[in-house]
Amino acid sequence: MTCGSIDRLLYRLAFAAAFAAAWLALTAAVCAADEARDFSAAELARIAAHGPWPLASAPDPGNRVSGNAAAIRLGHDLFFDPRLSADRRVACASCHDPVQGFQDGRATARGLLTGTRNTPGLLDVRHRRWFGWDGGHDSLWSASLRPILDPREMGGNAARVARTLRGKAGLDCHYRQAFGKPPHANDPDLLVNVAKALAAWQETLVSPPTPFDRFRDALQRGEAQGVAAYPTAAVRGLRLFLGRGQCATCHAGPLFSNGEFGDIGVPFFIRPSGVDPGRQGGIKRLLASPWNLLGSYNDDATRDNATQTRFLRTEHRNFGEFKVPTLRNLKLTGPYMHNGSVATLREVVRHYSELDEDRLHTDGERILRPLRLTDAESADLVTFLESLSPASPLPPPAVPSVVAACRAP
Amino acid sequence: MNFLTRIAAACHWRAWAAPRWLFRLAILLALTAAMSAVNTASAAEPRMPIFDAHVHYSQDAWESTPPKAAIAILRKAGLKRAMVSSSSDDGTQKLYAEAPDLVVPSLRPYRTRGENSTWVRDETVIPHLEERLKKYRYVAIGEFHVYGSDADLPVVRRTVQLAKQHKLWLHLHGDSDAIERVLMQDPTARILWAHAGFDRPDAVRAMLRKHRMLHADLAYRNDHASGGKVDPAWREAFIEFPDRFLVGTDTFTPERWHYIAAHADWSRAWLADLPRDIAERIGWRNGETLFAAMMATKQ
User: Fold this and answer.
1) Cβ–Cβ below 8 Å for A357 and B114
2) Could you tell me which residue, B36 or A129, shows the higher pLDDT?
3) Which residues in A have their CB inside 8 Å of a CB on B?
4) Do B38 and B56 fall within a single domain?
5) Is B283 helix (H, G, I), strand (E, B) or coil?
6) Model-level pTM?
7) Minimal Cβ distance to A320: which of B113, B145, B255
8) Is there a single domain that holds both residue B26 and residue B85?
9) Using a CB-CB distance cutoff of 8 angstroms, which residues of chain A are in contact with residue B220?
């Protein structure tokens, strides 16, 4: 055998060895990925509980114009109209920016003044039970009224609202179509009607399915390709979320929120002095409000929708509790926590990983323990959380149609 | 003829006809005035003092609410006295130095927050307690956390002995098993059972019947009252043991200092649903008798 043929043989052997190694590595990776997706029946059930998405919805019985086309258009137009505010510069959309998941990207809201709480996003808002970080409202329409009147946010009033409605033919017409009468400042229903129209439009804001939803549905249908498309890191993060983290205890269901309130050890001082009482203040405010579901503005004659409000009582634990937020659309709605004090999802995960147990009562949130995650585990959990947001930027919300009676001749 | 009738008779030109109707008018006016006086007295009645048996003033609290501001909060809330324990004890001493008339010091074994579950196995706790007991005056050791058989660990046993030696109460946050074990160690131990062990009212009553020197604070509990009304099962407990309960806020985070006044008002509201004597005992007299009196004798 010549030297040349030995070289060729060695070359071929080396090539074959490299090919075999690459094949083995690829096979191992695929097997590992498959293994990562090998869920037990209990895990499958828990994953299934976070869907399907989007949720079915029905009109709000407390809002007689829920689903009404004229009210939806009126609500849309008013949402973007700054003339409702005292300085004619602040609209609902100033803080609830559609391209940011109807959030503003700031730590705390900035209306006429700077507030003390983070602006909540509005996507999927119709499915909430309580509204606001403190649950100070029990309906979407009453939650929509407060910012209009709050001197720190829009500083509006009935006269300004009536003037705004009458100043634009489209608004005036849609108001009449929705409520069967013209807008008058001295009409005690005016503000509530406007709030109900705003709610009717916000009810249409539904976030699209996410990579997690597609994975969850594929898993349910046994579609291997759809399951495999979900990143392995997200699967590992999902396992942490459901398992060791016990995150799903509070961030439950398709909304990834149980709709209630908790104290997760986030400080709630308001500088320079004072505190945000959170849920405790919210319950007091709600029960004192003329616009709660126990009052006369609730359009549900049965008052079945007021049961939870009727039995609300403050407890010591409510002091410093804040809403368990949905985890959908998180990529769009940072910064996080009730006061926007946590800038990134990575820091949110670190908060739970290094939880300060001293801030929790021994007999309070028993479920909360520091997770002590490794860097890799933290990254996996962040990847999973990111998979609960749409994969691509959201388009602007569709402008609702003008109702036939309000079209120009 | 009484005084009012005489005046009426003397003043009216139809003196022979006036006395009966004027007399009635005068009675009516007198009654109205009396009722008005009662209402005024009621409106002006001072709010019930409160002995808050469960206050912490730990490092994060004194950093955010310095002693002068903290004492102002207590006075504004209408507290007659506050039993304070802190991590570290320096917080209690700062507060006591600021208002010895208001603060009743209790020695917490924790030098930093976060020793809740580790202190029972930390032998360095004992010299720390001994040193503080030599240096300062207290009415109790606690609040400390201990559950079940941990109460028989050497550090806890020595703590119980120190309380006996210095004639101090134990402010114990734990289950009834831990209470039983401590009382096995020292049947004469005086225990203030934090949060009444978060136990049911019937279980709390059973423990109070069994142990004559066991008392309980109601801090961070809501089940005994709602909307200013006392729960029936708890009412029976309060009526059976009016001298054995106290109220408390539990300022376990610095923010909760801003809850002390609201808690005092909440306590006043449900206490008003009890007979006045029992309400006063639970609201403040028990604390005065059990703890404030101790500080007076230690002067």
Assistant:
1) yes
2) A129
3) 267-269, 274-275, 277, 313, 315-317, 319-320, 357-359, 361-363
4) no
5) helix
6) 0.87
7) B255
8) no
9) 316-317, 361, 363
pLDDT of the residue at A23: 52
The better pLDDT of the pair B112, B195 is held by B195
Which domain CATH number covers B180? 3.20.20.140
- In CATH terms, the fold of domain A211-386 is Cytochrome Bc1 Complex; Chain D, domain 2 (1.10.760)
Q: What DSSP element (H or E) covers B82? A: strand B79-85
Superfamily of segment(s) A69-205+402-406:
Cytochrome c-like domain (1.10.760.10)
Tell me the three-class secondary structure of chain A, residue by residue: CCHHHHHHHHHHHHHHHHHHHHHHHHHHHHHHHHHHCCCCHHHHHHHHCCCCCCCCCCCCCCCCCCCCHHHHHHHHHHHCCHHHCCCCCCCHHHHCEHHHCCECCCCCCECCCECCCCCCCCCCHHHCCCECCCCCECCHHHHHHHHHHCCCCCCCCHHHHHHHHHCCHHHHHHHHHHHCCCCCCCCCCHHHHHHHHHHHHHCCCCCCCCHHHHHHHHHHHCCHHHHHCCCHHHHHHHHHHHCCCCHHHCCCCCCCCCCCEECCCCCCECCCCCECCEHHHHHHHHHHCCCCCCCCCCCCCCCHHHHHHHCCCCCHHHCCEEECCCCCCHHHCCCECCCCCECCHHHHHHHHHCCCHHHCCCCCCCCCCCCCCCHHHHHHHHHHHHCCCCCCCCCCCCCCCCCHHHCCC
Confidence bin at B61 (pLDDT 50/70/90): very high
* Best residue in A264, A268, A275 for a mutation probing chain B (most B CBs within 10 Å): A275
Q: Note whether B250 contacts A274, CB cutoff 8 Å.
A: no
Do B23 and B80 lie in one domain? The reply is no
Average pLDDT over residues B230-244: 98
Q: What is the pLDDT of residue A15?
A: 60
Burial of B130-168, coded b for 16+ CB within 10 Å and e otherwise, reads eebbeeebbbbbbbbbbeeebbbbebbeebbebbeebeb
Q: Are residues B128 and B14 in the same domain?
A: no
- Domain containing B17 equals 3-43
For residues B161-168, give the mean pLDDT: 98
A316, B252: Cβ pair inside 8 Å? no
Provide φ and ψ at B70, rounded to 5°. Answer: -65, -45
**Residues of chain A below pLDDT 50:** 1, 25-32
Q: How confident is the model at residue B295 (pLDDT cuts 50, 70, 90)?
A: confident
Q: Is residue B223 domain-shared with residue B244, that is, in the same domain?
A: yes
B9 & B111 share domain: no
The domain tally of chain B equals: 2
User: Chain B residues within 8 A (CB-CB) of chain A?
Assistant: 64, 113-114, 116, 145, 173, 195, 198, 220-222, 226-227, 250, 252-256, 258-259, 262-263
Same structural domain for residues B173 and B107? Answer: yes
| Angstroms from B204 CA to nearest CA on chain A | 17
Q: What is the mean pLDDT of chain A?
A: 92
User: B227, A275: Cβ pair inside 8 Å?
Assistant: no
Residues B107 and B203 placed together within one structural domain of the fold = yes
Can you give the residue ranges of every domain in chain A? Answer: 69-205+402-406, 211-386
ipTM: 0.84
The CA distance from A47 to B223, in Å, is: 36
